[in-house]
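Dear colleagues,

For the upcoming journal club I promised to circulate an example of a predicted protein-ligand complex. I picked one with zinc ion because it came up in last month's discussion. The inputs are reproduced below in full, followed by the predicted structure.
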Amino acid sequence: MTCLICAGHAESVECVAGWEERHCSQCGSYRMSQTLVLVMMEEGQIFDTPRMREWLTTRRGCVSIPSIEPHHAILVT
Ligand SMILES: [Zn+2]
């Protein structure tokens, strides 16, 4: 499986419906909304990897596995 943020190698983990969970050695563990994954694919968008990793690090102060929803996505413009 590939990481949805950096496209590196990541482990895919079973999780609740509507979400994709990945454990990436570079980005760590996170959940991503399948809606967001589909929009990204359809529109050919890519994440701003360093800024998403920073966002994940910040979120981990509150939760162990951050959930990334469409309004959290930081994209390369
Ligand atoms: Zn990654």
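Two points we might discuss: The mean pLDDT is 97. The CA atoms of residues 45 and 75 lie 7 Å apart.

See you all on Thursday,
B. R.
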